[in-house]
Structure formats: C-alpha cells, structure tokens
Amino acid sequence: MWCTTRLSSFAIWIFVCGTVKSATDTDVRNLLTELFTTRSYDKLVRPIINQSEPVVAWVEYFLYGLNDVNEVEQKMTTTGYIEVYWKDEFLSWDSNLYDGLWNIYVPQGKVWKPDISLGNGFKDLKELGSDFIQVYITSDGYVLWKPFQIFQSKCNLDPTYFPFDKQTCNLEFVVWSLDIDDVMLLVGSDGINMMEAMESNGQWDVVSSSSSDETESFETKVIFSIRMKRKPLFIVMNIIIPIILLSILNIFTFQIPADCGERMGYTITVWLSFAVFLTIVSASLPKSSDTTPIISIYIMVQLGIGTATVLVSAVQSRFVSRSDDKPVTSWLQRLTLIGRSKVKPNAVEKVNIVEEKVNWKSGMAALDILFFWLFFILLAITTFVILMISAFSNN
Ligand SMILES: *[C@@H]1O[C@H](CO)[C@@H](O)[C@H](O)[C@H]1NC(C)=O
Predict the structure, then answer these.
(1) What is the DSSP letter of 345?
(2) What is the model's pTM?
(3) Atom 11, ligand 1: which residue's CA is nearest?
(4) CA 300 / ligand 1 centre spacing (Å)
(5) Which CATH superfamily is domain 25-231 in?
(6) 234-324+359-392 CATH fold
(7) Ligand 1: which of 46, 50, 182 to mutate, most ligand atoms within 8 Å of CB?
(8) Run means of pLDDT, 10 residues per run, the chain, 395 residues
C-alpha cells in the first residue's frame, strides 16, 4: 500500500521536476503555513473526515539486535524500531502548487498519532519515540513514523530442555486508549524484518520470525514473534562435561582397594567437589520451580550416585577388616566365585569351586567390581538419555 503510494508520488515528482522548477524554502514555508495554520490542523482530531470510520495503521517491525533473553526474569530485550504508517486526510496537498514539493518532515509531536505501545512490555507504559523523531509526510497524506526503541517484553521461557531449548518470544503492539472503531492495526507488507546485526548474539540464534494481527472484541493488536534457539556450547563445556568428568572420577572410587585408608578420603573429596561445583552451576541454570530442567534431574542423579558411593565405601571399609573367623555371607561367597570364574560355572564345576575359600577381603573386592560396573552403566545410560532427549526435542 505504502510502497505503491510512495512510488506514484515519486513518479509525479520526477515528472514535475522535468517540467517545472524545483521547490524552494518558500514553498516549504508556505506549505507548513497552509497545513498547520491556515487549515488549523488540530492533532487532537482523528485524521479522517468521516469520524465513524476507523483510521487504519500498518505496523512493521525492524529488529536490529537481540540484546538479552533472561530466564530468571522471563523477559526478552530487543533493539529495533517499528514503522507505522497511516493516512492523515488533513495533511494532503497538491504538489503542483508548491513547485513539486511532495514530502516534508515534521517532529512527531506536531501531528496526530495512534497511541501504540508495547502491550506485553516490562516497563511502564510510555509514548513511543521522542520529540526529536520526525514523521515523514507525503503529498497524498500518508504519514510514516519510525520510533526507535529498546523494547523489553515479557516472554514465558520453558527451561525443560535447557541448554538445548528453543524459545518463542512475542512483541505485542496494541493501541492503548483508542477503541477499535477509532484505530485499526494491521501488519504492514514487510511484517517483521531482521537486520544483519542479528547474528551477533552470543547465546541465541534466531531461527524464524512471523507476524500477525489480531482483533479481540475491543482490542486491536499486532504481534511479532521471534523464534530462537540457544547456542548450547558454553553450557556443555562449562557444566555438562565437568559433571561427566567428576562422575567418572567418582566411579573410580571402586578401583581403590577397600582396605586402603585413602579410599574414604578420595570419595569424600570427589563428593565435596561435586557439591562445590553445583553451587557454581546453579547460578547458570534457569531459576524456576514450575518446570524442572532435565539437566537438573541429571545433576541430581549424578549427585545421588556420588552419595551412594560414599555410603557403600563406608560400609565396605567396616566389613573388609572383619575377622575371617566369621564366615562370609553365602550370597557374597557366590558373587565372589562367579566373579572369579568369569564364565558361568556349570553344575560339575560348581561343586569344586564351592570348596574354595572366600574371605571378607576378596568378597569386598568382588563387590567393588559389581558397583563399579553398576554405576558406570548408570552413568552411561543417564548421559545417553539426556543427550537423546535434547537431540530429539523439537520443543
Ligand atoms: C461514514 O461511514 C459510515 C460507516 O462506514 C457510513 O455508514 C456513513 O454513510 C458515512 N458517512 C458519510 C457522510 O460518508
């Protein structure tokens, strides 16, 4: 709509220029006097002759940069501007009378504007733009207004798949006080536009964007959606990999003989570094108690395995020093013998190996191997599961 108008104005301008002399400052002065003084322009009057019809305003959004997406406060901060245009029936003129002058600029405070504001904003409602911003007016009465702003909008972020998540955030522009019968908002021909600066956000990639206009009983609004994907590398390098490494260290507790005095010291040290690391990590995780990120569950499972390791080691260090006068419990004997024979004993061999002596120390060594593999498999499965969920979550 705008484009064709602008083009036709442009065509007229070229034609006028070719035949008549170009506009001078006197023409501009005369035009401003004509528009704002002679016709007594009043910016309180809705710029349409038939006051029972709404003024239609087209809105487009130009995104310069995604500054921040904050999980804690659930907000998105963007830099950009909206481009709003509408027809002001009291601001048109015949450019031939002004030596082909077909466009002027005036400060935004001089003309009527729809009271558009960010409906899902985070800060108090304020007039968009500022008085130094000029609106562009063409001879057929179209007014173009481009308020540049840092928009802070509310955005419900779902942390479930953190740090492999995708999020959608909206910017909703509404007409605040005026009724739908007064002003109607529509998405302009370009909808939402991304500038080159887009790629420079360190944490997020913009995947796609869309725009739509909505009309609810009394409200008219234009919604611009930005869909983005988190870049997970930082979290993977600084949280996930260290946790996996610590878990591996933890499992290797079972490679230290149970009667070695160092063992309890080692396992407690690993547990403590886990706990210290968790306090650092929790600062990077989304703070929400509504939805638990899968990664938090993963960390809890690893901490659980660490705690189990400490407990098992403590109990083992008690049994390993038990006197061999006391017979070894039968299930532990069986376990030890199975471990020794490597292959499943058949019925004949079973008779022979039961003769072998099992003491508490070798029983504990067999337990060590059992727990080593048990926790190793647990670590492998949980890590695999979390990676699979993340990889295939197209949330
Ligand atoms: C003004 O617009 C309304 C609604 O479109 C229409 O019914 C009415 O006839 C119009 N009045 C004039 C004077 O054109």
Answers:
(1) P
(2) 0.79
(3) 50
(4) 68
(5) Neurotransmitter-gated ion-channel ligand-binding domain (2.70.170.10)
(6) Methane Monooxygenase Hydroxylase; Chain G, domain 1 (1.20.58)
(7) 50
(8) 39 43 87 93 94 94 89 88 94 92 93 92 85 93 94 89 89 91 92 74 87 88 93 88 93 91 92 86 73 85 93 92 84 82 55 65 90 95 88 70
